[in-house]
Amino acid sequence: MFAVFKTTKFKYNQKTPYAMKRVLITGITGFVGSHLADLLLSKNYEVYGIVRWRSNLENITHIKDSLKLVEADVKDAHSLYKAINDARPDEIYHLAAQSFVPTSWTAPADTMETNAVGTINMFEAIRKSNTNPPVHVAGSSEEYGFVKPEETPIKEDNPLRPLSPYGVSKVAEDMLAYQYFKSYGIKTVVTRGFNHTGPRRGDVFVTSNFSKQIVEIEKGKREPVIKVGNLEAQRDFTDVRDMVKGYHLALQKGVPGERYNLCSGRVYSVKQVLGMLLALSKIKVKIEKDSERIRPSDVPILLGDNTKFCRQTGWKPKIPFEQTLKDLLDYWRNKII
């Protein structure tokens, strides 16, 4: 597979007397990748994004003409090398991943190949292309896994006890970033993002799944029954639009070789989240447990401490969680006709 650059016209900011910074995003068509592309375009970056021939471009339709899309796959080392060597970016944001935890139980080997081997392919492509851009690696709070009650809020030096193949794959990415920094001087910065949500979130993820079910009930497309899994799990949620600002700051002000928690520092149970969403709607529903939504093992609580990152970069999440949920409901209200 060869990288294919699609011809697009760029509008340069006439007030900017210097060349636009060039950035490459792996996973640009995903939920977070599309929001990161929005942010970087607003900052006058020249944005390259890696796509596969079968990629769904829905999340970037509104900005597609402002992007340079490169056909490659993180599991295909040659195509990734070609993409990086041709683009020669000033910054790389590595978001491409199999990111749904339940899928990692049914496809553990594919999850590891995409996430861990895909990350190796990216670092090797950087080495072989003789480029040395700073690289942001999107880690995950799932790396912490089993957390003891006395260990919350979780700091970056907490033991890593991942409880899913996805969590293990993210630990591998995290350690690879450190190893390539120490061995080859690649300027890696890892963010361990806790749960994040907002408009465009895929409907397999809990906040978006609940929102979609609620909107379908509002529009008379399903019975007034909400299917749920484990309602007791507690998670630390941040708006995706705040999260991508953190990703950007990680490369501007973060220390190479370090890892940082990106989180709100506030925890909600899944039951509370469902209650908040229902409060934003007028429907009356029945709650029904669905055994298919129960994981073989689940992380009881993920509550993060963002002190290290905030002190280093000045980042602070600004969008209230209630606003995030309202925006997510409105996204589905506009999407479902």
CATH topology of the largest domain: Rossmann fold
Q: Give the averaged pLDDT, no decimals.
A: 92
Largest sheet: 7 strands, parallel
- Got a strand count? 14
Number of helices: 10
Overall tally of structural domains: 2
**What is the N-to-C order of secondary-structure elements (H for helix, E for strand)?**
EHEEHEHHEHEEHEEEHEEHEEHH
Morphology? globular
The CATH homologous superfamily of the largest domain is named NAD(P)-binding Rossmann-like Domain
Flag low-confidence runs. 1-17
Q: Which CATH class of the largest domain applies here?
A: Alpha Beta
Range of strand content? 15-25%
What share of the residues lie within helices? 25-40%
First-residue to last-residue Cα separation:
38 Å
Which secondary-structure class do the elements indicate?
Answer: alpha/beta
Give, in spatial order, the strands making up the sheet with the most strands.
Answer: 3-2-1-4-5-6-11
Named at the architecture level, the CATH assignment of the largest domain is 3-Layer(aba) Sandwich
Gyration radius (Cα, Å) is: 20 Å
